[in-house]
From TrEMBL:
Natural source organism: Leptospira andrefontaineae
One Pfam entry name: Hydrolase
Entry protein name: Dehalogenase
Length: 205
């Protein structure tokens, strides 16, 4: 029987995504549509894959058509984002329990170099440092749901029963296609994860 490798996403799985929380504080709801339409989406993807530096990301953050619409400066967004981090306590306790019982647990996150800001917060930083490996798209040059992302993990941890926990349905779907045991995490119903794990892996917690 293959031993399990528990693979956790970060944003909206271990912690609440600080980007959305910061945006709500800095921008009235009536301007959210302008923000959504005004971002240069490729810049975000390039930053998450480590293809551009932070200053390039800031410069490309908005399309030219939206740079003078009074939208929040990306530097202000970053400052607000990392003024506070909100862990999802139920998931953190699960990870701690899995590690305490000797299971292998890794992180698999689509995130930019800003992950270093997250790790400055003691609780989440200590937890992430305790994991067996950290996979960040900015250091891999590839993002989920690309199969290469999952294959990278399979190469580093061969022959495992891969247990994938992520809030993004497409990421979960592709993990299932890769024959991983995939669970779509709902941050509004974190207790469902414990039910899934205890059903699939009795006595794992």
């Amino acid at each position: 029987m293959r031993s399990p490798l528990f693979v956790f996403d970060l944003m909206d799985t271990l912690i609440q995504d600080p980007f959305h929380l910061a945006l709500k504080e800095l921008l009235p709801r009536e301007h959210w549509e302008d923000f959504k339409n005004g971002r240069e989406k490729q810049a975000f993807l390039d930053f998450e894959m480590g293809r551009i530096e932070e200053e390039d990301f800031f410069q490309r953050f908005y399309l030219d058509s939206h740079k003078d619409k009074g939208l929040p400066h990306p530097k202000d967004l970053k400052e607000k984002m990392f003024s506070k981090i909100n862990p999802i306590s139920e998931t953190l306790e699960i990870v701690k329990s899995l590690k305490a019982k000797g299971f292998s647990v890794i992180l698999a996150s689509n995130y930019s170099i800003w992950y270093k800001e997250v790790m400055k917060f003691q609780e989440i930083g200590e937890l992430l440092h305790s994991l067996d490996a950290l996979y960040f798209s900015c250091e891999m040059g590839v993002r989920k749901p690309a199969q290469e992302y999952y294959q990278w993990i399979e190469t580093d941890f061969p022959g495992k029963d891969y247990v994938f926990i992520d809030d993004n349905p497409t990421n979960v779907e592709v993990a299932g296609y890769m024959n991983w045991n995939a669970f779509k995490f709902n941050p509004k119903k974190p207790g469902e994860l414990k039910e899934f794990l205890t059903e699939q892996y009795p006595n794992c917690l």
